[in-house]
Amino acid sequence: MSAAPAKRTTYREAVREAIREALLRDPRVFMMGEDVGRYGGAYAVSKGLLAEFGPERMRDTPLSESAFVGAGIGAALGGARPIVEIMTVNFSLLALDQIVNNAATLRHMSGGQLSVPLVIRMATGAGRQLAAQHAHSLEGWFAHVPGLRIVVPATLADARGMLWTALEDPDPVLMFEHQTLYNMEGELAEDAGPVDIDRAAVRRPGGDVTLITYGATLYTTLAAAETLAAERIESEVIDLRTLRPLDMETIFASVRKTRRVVVIDEGWRSGSLSAEILARVAESAFYDLDAPVARVCSAEVPIPYPKHLEDAALPQAPAIVEAVRALMPASVSR
Amino acid sequence: MTRDEIRTAVLHALTSVAPEIDPQRLDPDSVFRQAYDLDSMDVLNFMIALHASLDVDVPESDYVKLASLNSAVDYLAGRLTS
Amino acid sequence: MIAFHMPTLGADMEAGTLVEWLKKPGDVVARGDIIAVVDTEKGAIEIEVFDAGVIDRLLIAPGQKTPVGTILAMIRAPGEPPGVAPEPVAGAPPAVAARARISPAARKAAGQLGVDLDAVEGRGPGGSITVADVERAVSGRRTVLSASDRLAATRAAVGAAMARSKRDVPHVYLSNTVDLTPALTWLRAENARRAVTERLLPAVLFIKAVGRACADVPGVNGFWTDKGFAAGSGVHVGCAIALRGGGLVAPALHDVNTKSLDVIGREFADLVARARAGALRSSEMSDPTITVTNLGELGVESVYAIIYPPQVAIVGIGRIVDRPWVVEGRIEPRSVVTVSVSADHRAVDGRGAGAFLTAVERWLQEPAAL
Question: What's the complex ipTM?
Answer without folding.
Answer: 0.84
